[in-house]
Amino acid sequence: MKKQLILEDGTIFIGEGFGSDANKTGEVVFNTGMTGYQEILSDPSYCGQIVTLTYPLIGNYGINRDDFESISPAISGLVVKEAAEFPSNWRSELSLDQFLKLKNIPGIAGIDTRKLTRIIRKYGTLKGAICSMNEDADEILERLRALQLRNDQVKQVSTKTPYPSPGRGKRIVLVDFGMKHGILRELNKRDCDVVVVPYHTTAEEILNLSPDGVMLSNGPGDPKDVPEAIEMIRGILGKVPLFGICLGHQLFALASGANTVKMKFGHRGSNHPVKDLKTGKVALTSQNHGYTVEKESIKETRLEVTHIALNDGTIEGLKHLDFPAFTVQYHPEASPGPEDANNLFDKFLQMIEMEKGEGEKLCQSVQI
């Protein structure tokens, strides 16, 4: 069945439809990863977006039960050059087409994804629609140009109620702005006693949980659309060690007095080189973000830049000069992608140990 992908600039791509028959709109972006399409489809940070995968063949190893990053995908649509009809992998349980049908996600294949990617790189992310050939292109185009993209993506994908993921180690409160399961998995692997809380949880409510540390998760959209989270971060800074990833990194910057801006087409892929400014080492990282911390805005804050992207020089890591808090723009949980930065979870726990140790020394000095 033929489908069309219509962009707000008037460009129309005709291809073969697969997955759901639904007509959906969203922000059209591209991801350069060669593998990991299941994790991309289920990453809550893609809420409301139509994702173009630049690798030419997608779906060849199917869909399995283990590689999901969320239970309910929030992606609006998928664009590929070729979708494999008959996957081959010992873990495969569904084809890509079957999965998209199951989750009501439309897909379009057989279009020139290189051309589409060049358009996005030249003009920036564009609003788009995947729809049937029966839809009038001019009417769709008119609606697209008038469409205001939603600003409540975090609310859509965050957990509605707190829940525990028990362990016998450090008590970590994980604030869910659209959390990938890989982050929770890494904390569980280290036997952390995790409590996952909604995005609008207050500083007082978090501190009442007696955390050893607080983690700010990834998530979709503009960080300025989550003012309650910015206020919460201000309320816990200096009171408990903090580690933020992706959207959590941007929210931390805003809470500390910096500014964030929308990027032309963002960073989405599994091979982005990032330099650690302290050691000079370069790590390959997994990334998915459309906003960045503005460099000039750091000067008036108590923040220090710790990492930069080698491709475009944008900020990839921050730390606070007065409080035990650091953040990164990339994804150290590596789902999908390289595991070069996985040790940041250990660094977070070591920071907690150091803070607790200083507290114990202070108590001992008072007793003496």
TrEMBL record:
L-glutamine binds at residues 45, 219, 221, 247, 250, 288, 290-291. Its EC number is 6.3.5.5. It holds the Pfam family CPSase_sm_chain. Residues 1-131 form the Carbamoyl-phosphate synthase small subunit N-terminal domain. Residues 1-170 are annotated as: CPSase. GO terms for molecular function: ATP binding; carbamoyl-phosphate synthase (glutamine-hydrolyzing) activity; glutaminase activity. Pathway: Amino-acid biosynthesis; L-arginine biosynthesis; carbamoyl phosphate from bicarbonate: step 1/1; Pyrimidine metabolism; UMP biosynthesis via de novo pathway; (S)-dihydroorotate from bicarbonate: step 1/3. CDD domains: GATase1_CPSase (cd01744). Keywords: Amino-acid biosynthesis, Arginine biosynthesis, ATP-binding, Glutamine amidotransferase, Ligase, Nucleotide-binding, Pyrimidine biosynthesis. InterPro entries: Anth_synth/Amidotransfase, CarbamoylP_synth_ssu, CarbamoylP_synth_ssu_N, CarbP_synth_ssu_N_sf, Class_I_gatase-like, CPSase_GATase1, GATASE. It catalyses: hydrogencarbonate + L-glutamine + 2 ATP + H2O = carbamoyl phosphate + L-glutamate + 2 ADP + phosphate + 2 H(+); L-glutamine + H2O = L-glutamate + NH4(+). GO terms for biological process: 'de novo' pyrimidine nucleobase biosynthetic process; 'de novo' UMP biosynthetic process; glutamine metabolic process; L-arginine biosynthetic process. It is an enzyme of class 6 (ligase). It comes from the Bacteria. SMART domains: CPSase_sm_chain. The active site is at residues 246, 331, 333. Small subunit of the glutamine-dependent carbamoyl phosphate synthetase (CPSase). CPSase catalyzes the formation of carbamoyl phosphate from the ammonia moiety of glutamine, carbonate, and phosphate donated by ATP, constituting the first step of 2 biosynthetic pathways, one leading to arginine and/or urea and the other to pyrimidine nucleotides. The small subunit (glutamine amidotransferase) binds and cleaves glutamine to supply the large subunit with the substrate ammonia. Composed of two chains; the small (or glutamine) chain promotes the hydrolysis of glutamine to ammonia, which is used by the large (or ammonia) chain to synthesize carbamoyl phosphate. Tetramer of heterodimers (alpha,beta)4. Belongs to the CarA family. HAMAP family: CPSase_S_chain (MF_01209). This is Carbamoyl phosphate synthase small chain. It comes from Bacillus methanolicus (strain MGA3 / ATCC 53907).
